[in-house]
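== Polypeptide entry ==
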Amino acid sequence: MKLRPLTGAITALVTPFHKEEVAHNDLRALVEYQIKGGINGLVPVGTTGESPTVSHEEHLAIIQTVIDAAAGRVPVIAGTGSNSTAEAIDLTEGAHAAGADAMLVVAPYYNKPNAEGQFQHFSAIAEATDRPIILYSIPSRCGVDIPVSVLVRLRAKYRHVAWIKEAGGSVERVDQIKDALGSDMTVLSGDDGLTLPFMSAGAEGVISVATNYAVTEVTQMVHYALANDYASARKIHRALYPFFKSIFVEPNPVPIKAVLAAKKVIRSAEVRLPLVPLSAEGWKVVKPTIPARKVGRS
C-alpha cells in the first residue's frame, strides 16, 4: 500500500556487537532481513541501538552502514538526539552529510529543560538540517515529555518538524496532539503494545522494537490498521501481545537481542555495560512468546 512519508512500521534497530566491537556485517544482515520482511523504514542508533554507549565515531559509522545497506530501498532515520544541544547538532550534521533521509531527536534527558529550553533546543537542531525531524517524547527515560505547546510552536516555525514518536504510554496524548495540530503532526507509536490503540486515535504507525524480529507480522498489522481493517489488525495484535510485553521484561534492548541471537539473525546477544545479558529467568518469560518462524543468517 502507498503510505505517507515516514509512516507505517519502522524498526528501531539494535546495534549488534561482537567481542566488544560494532558488528557491521551483522548490522548489514539485519538491514537485509528487515527489508525482505517488508519494513517501511529503519532507525539506527536510537535507544534500542544503545546510543548512550557507542562513541561519536561509532555512532556515525553505524548510521553510514545502515544507509549503505538500505541503498535507498527504505528511508533511514538517524538517531541524532542528545541532552547536549551542541552534540545533537553535530550528530545531525554528520547524519545529514552521510545521506540520512530523516532524523529522530529525543527530548533532552537528565537535565530536564523547561518548555522554552526544549523549544530552543529543537529549534537549534532544526536549523542544522532541512530534512525531516521526528521528535521523540519518552518521559520515562528523559524525565520530561515534549509539551504540546512546544510541538505547536515548532510546527509553526519549521515545516520539516512534522512527526513525533510518542512513547508516554497514554492514548490521550495522541488525542491532545491531534486536537492541537490535526494532520499537521504525524504521530508514531513508541510502544509496540500500544500501536493499535494509538492508531485507532489517529497515529499512523510505529517505531518498533518488536520488528527487529517480527518484522512481517507487525508491518502487516500496521498496514491493516492504516486500511481501517481493525478486525484483521486486532488478530495480529492479540497473537503478538505476549511478545510485545515480554521483550521489555528486562531493559531494552536486552531481550530483543537475545531473541535475534537465538534465532541466528545476529551472531551475539552482547550488550554494553551498564546493560547486562538477559537472565535465565528473563529468557523463561521471553522464549514462549517468540513468534514461530524459520529464520537464519544469510
